[in-house]
Write a structure and sequence with these properties.
This is Phosphotransferase. Keywords: Transferase. GO terms for molecular function: ethanolamine kinase activity. Pfam families: Choline_kinase. InterPro entries: Kinase-like_dom_sf. The protein is built from 10 helices and 10 strands. The radius of gyration is 19 Å and the shape is globular. The protein is α+β, with helices and mostly antiparallel strands. It folds into 2 domains: 84 residues, Phosphorylase Kinase, domain 1, CATH 3.30.200.20; 202 residues, Aminoglycoside phosphotransferase (APH), C-terminal lobe (Aminoglycoside 3'-phosphotransferase, Chain: A, domain 2, Alpha-Beta Complex). A 5-stranded antiparallel β-sheet has the order 1-2-3-5-4, with helices on both faces. Strands 6-8-9 form a 3-stranded antiparallel β-sheet, with helices on one face. A two-stranded antiparallel ribbon has the order 7-10.
């Protein structure tokens, strides 16, 4: 039994000897599927991650609010560094699933509902996720940490400033801010949205840009997504602001991985992930520069 499994087996909520299985996919924490007396739970182990501005108290508050809004599974137990959730039997979505027009429409409707309803259930301090603030701090963190990408940082700071100047004005909603396909579950009847560690008040364009870039949407799918979300014909002005926010979203993913290369102790190939993120970001920025700068 590993140290993590030994810790999990000692939690006070179990009625019998729990069966513990590791789950793959965690990039800032460790995840386990636990079965106890026929019931199944997801256990997330991980403390605060200061270099990514993750506070587990914010994640807990957002997880509870999301359950109250009917968006996420229930929180069953928590203590510092531990979050135990009800297990949802279902399929984890893939980018290919979300590219399907019917599934994409359901995903966008769920995102809009979470944006609109979460503030009514959130208790405690209001977390904010502002990508341009994150990018500026990542520049400092990478410079201070002696990152091998240090020579690129001046350009990244300039690009962040360009994107910020072209992405407003802003509406404010409660954003998830990490819309990977794997954070959507389909139980056969409905969709669920999980993993709220980056959540906070933000512009809806950041979530929409993240959804598109994380799931390889072509332009036609991006335009359909925006019209589905806003329920109005897409204007040139909105498309331009969205393109600027998409550049910020792609750059944030690049720099997130670069910072993780420096500081994360989890077993994950962040160097390879940085390479993949750069392959997405660099042509997208060249296209943005040609069309909007």
């Amino acid at each position: 039994m590993t140290a993590a499994e030994d810790k999990i087996s000692g939690f006070p909520l179990w009625q019998d000897r729990p069966v513990i299985e590791p789950l793959s996919g965690g990039m800032t924490n460790e995840n386990y599927l636990v079965t106890d007396c026929g019931r199944r739970f997801v256990v997330r182990l991980g403390g605060n991650v200061p270099y990514h501005y993750i506070l587990r108290t914010n994640e807990l508050a957002a997880s509870r609010a999301a359950h109250a809004a009917g968006i996420s599974p229930a929180v069953i137990y928590n203590e510092p560094g531990v979050l135990i959730l009800e297990y949802i039997e279902g399929k984890t979505l893939t980018p290919e699933d979300i590219q399907d027009s019917g599934t994409r429409q359901k995903v966008v409707q769920l995102i809009r509902r979470s944006h609109q309803q979460m503030p009514y259930y959130l208790q405690g301090p209001a977390p904010i996720f502002w990508v341009f603030h994150v990018l500026r701090n990542y520049v400092r963190d990478l410079a201070d940490g002696g990152s091998p990408y240090k020579a690129r940082l001046e350009d990244y700071l300039r690009i962040a400033t360009e994107a910020e100047s072209r992405s407003g004005p802003y509406d404010i909603v409660f954003g998830h801010n990490d819309l990977l396909a794997a954070n959507f579950l389909d139980d056969g009847d409905r969709l669920w949205l999980i993993d709220w560690e980056y959540s906070g008040f933000n512009t809806p364009l950041f979530d929409l840009a993240g959804l598109a870039s994380n799931n390889d949407f072509a332009d036609a799918r991006q335009k359909d997504m925006l019209e589905c979300y806003f329920e109005i014909p897409l204007s040139d002005e909105l498309w331009s602001r969205y393109q600027a926010m998409k550049i910020a979203s792609l750059l944030r993913e690049v720099m997130w991985s670069m910072v993780s290369e420096l500081y994360s102790t989890l077993e994950f190939d962040y160097g390879e992930y940085t390479r993949v993120c750069l392959e997405r970001f660099e042509p997208a920025y060249e296209s943005f520069k040609k069309d909007y700068l």
